[in-house]
Write a structure and sequence with these properties.
- By secondary structure, this protein is an all-beta fold.
- 1% of the residues lie in helices and 45% in strands.
- The longest helix has 7 residues.
- The two termini are 31 Å apart.
């Protein structure tokens, strides 16, 4: 017998996480919870797992403050360099034991290190890795050396604990700054020597010293050097002229600034950065003349207030950002209120019209960087607070063999987006049908919430078999080599607004859901 009620399609998570508190303003494609998820392949899935890079923690279980994927001699040699909370800079040569101590005795006080690749200023010169910490003399690793050395010719201002917090290669020169004794100045080398901050062709620029407290970091973007100040200030350095005296410094913003030397990253055609209020922004080229404008990225999904309320602001100076090109995702390490380094905010840019947000909470992310895999694809790595480096986005949905939760919650919908008359009526639930990509013989648990009260919990098997009444294969469309399958279960309860909470948490459990279909009948007008 054919179903006599109505069927509403619920696009699942197509607009990502929202922080909008007015439920009447939340669209059907938004999520109230998006924890350890991914939006890849057009479905809502559990994000990839985490596997240890080093099976045994580094001796003493130090905090991993930063890391860098180092290729000193081209594609043949690959090393992993880490700065640790025990004051050592170490190198792994392939055994994952970090047996080479490049430097010891470094002063470490919760630093946020910046690694910059330079060198090869002329044919035959070594490639060099520069390590900036703000409190130690800049360290330089030449090629595949066994130790680092102090930078050869630092700026005269850099002495004692007054050291640059960041560096960046721009127009073939090394630029650096952030030293506490002159925090509004950026220094530069000639193109011929990235270690020479005092010789011919070197110099410095004073960046609006009466504004802000200090320069926090910089990035080279579209021919300009962009410098961020804390708590406010963004400045553009134009070095296009071969005459140094013709370089210019232009003020871009006095209302927005940076917070962390690693709190920005270039994405496909833009730069994303985080400010002192935990708000995310994009710097975008907006005219044919290359002018740069700023817009809030957080406000697109109404996340500004949510991030500010739920973030440990004291740890924002330690946040680190990367762009995972293979998945078109920006990842930013953050700390929840009262905790340290317990989440990553991920922004998915696969929809050109609308970036989508999600939160990853399964890892301790004290540091983060990109590491090339065997196929030369750069994948996200993190360092935790106890001497272990982790490879993220693994195909298996486990963390070192253990489970983690993947959870989503849809908006509280009254279905007025389908028919305004439905907004004032009760709906009587009849069935819930999922469109899934089979992922294995395990369940997705779905809570049915009517008017904020959980009425029922339904389980859906994520495998090819063991499906509920009404299951069938839709057509020949394929995802990851398997067909899409519809699975239907009876749904109970009634109310004006419906929200659905899906989750699973055991090791190797996954889900891949593209749509919900809700079967219902109309009740009376609310309150009548």
């Amino acid at each position: 017998m054919a179903f006599a009620g109505e069927v509403a399609e619920l696009p699942l998570g197509v607009d990502g996480l929202t922080g909008q508190k007015n439920i009447s303003e939340i669209g059907p494609g938004h999520l109230l919870v998006a924890e350890n998820l991914t939006y890849q392949a057009g479905t809502l899935q559990k994000e990839g797992g985490s596997a240890k890079f080093n099976s045994s923690a580094i001796a003493g279980t130090p905090i991993v403050l930063g890391g860098h994927d180092w290729h000193p001699t081209g594609t043949v040699t690959q090393r992993l360099i880490v700065l640790l909370g025990d004051g050592t800079l170490r190198k792994d040569t392939g055994a994952t034991d970090f047996s080479v101590t490049l430097k010891s005795g470094l002063t470490i006080s919760d630093v946020n290190p910046v690694f910059v690749e330079g060198g090869i200023e002329a044919a035959g010169s070594d490639k060099k890795l520069f390590v900036f910490t703000g409190v130690n003399v800049v360290q330089v690793l030449a090629a595949d050396g066994a130790t680092t050395g102090d930078i050869a010719t630092p700026a005269a201002d850099w002495s004692g604990a007054n050291q640059p917090t960041f560096g960046v290669i721009h127009e073939n020169r090394m630029f650096a700054g952030g030293n506490a004794n002159d925090p509004h100045r950026v220094y530069y080398t000639p193109a011929s020597d990235h270690e020479d901050f005092t010789g011919a062709g070197s110099g410095s620029l004073s960046i609006y010293p009466g504004e802000g407290e200090r320069i926090t970091g910089g990035i080279s973007f579209k021919g300009l050097l962009i410098l961020f100040k804390f708590p406010k200030g963004i400045y553009l350095v134009d070095t296009s002229s071969v005459t140094l005296s013709e370089w210019s410094v232009d003020k871009h913003s006095t209302d927005i600034g940076g917070i962390s030397p690693n709190g920005h990253t270039a994405i496909d055609n833009d730069v994303i950065f985080i400010d002192a209020g935990a708000t995310l922004h994009l710097i975008s080229a907006i005219t044919a003349f290359g002018n740069i404008g700023t817009r809030s990225l957080s406000s697109i999904a109404n996340l500004t207030e949510l991030l500010l309320d739920e973030t440990n602001i004291a740890q924002l100076p330690n946040c680190q950002a990367i762009y995972y090109t293979a998945k078109a995702e920006a990842h930013i390490t953050m700390s929840s209120s009262g905790s340290n380094f317990d989440r990553r905010l991920v922004i998915d840019f696969n929809r050109p019209d609308f970036p989508r947000f999600r939160l990853s909470t399964k890892d301790i992310n004290r540091s983060m960087w990109l590491n090339q895999d065997a196929n030369r694809i750069s994948r996200p790595y993190i360092g935790d607070s106890s001497g272990t480096i982790w490879k993220l986005d693994q195909d298996t949905r486990n963390k070192d063999g253990g489970g983690y939760s993947g959870k989503f919650q849809t908006a509280h919908l009254d279905f007025s987006h389908l028919d305004p008359a439905l907004g004032v009526k009760n709906k009587n639930g009849k069935f819930l049908e999922l469109v899934i990509e089979p992922k294995g013989n395990h369940d997705l648990t779905v809570d049915v919430v009517w008017d904020t009260i959980t009425i029922q919990t339904i389980t859906f098997n994520m495998g090819e078999s063991g499906a509920a009444l009404g299951s069938f294969v839709l057509d020949t469309n394929k995802l990851a080599g398997t067909g899409l399958t519809n699975k239907r279960k009876r749904m109970e309860g009634s109310g004006k607004r419906l929200s659905l909470i899906g989750r699973n948490s055991a090791a190797n459990e996954n889900f891949s859901v593209s749509r919900f279909y809700i079967g219902f009948t109309r009740g009376t007008d609310r309150g009548l």
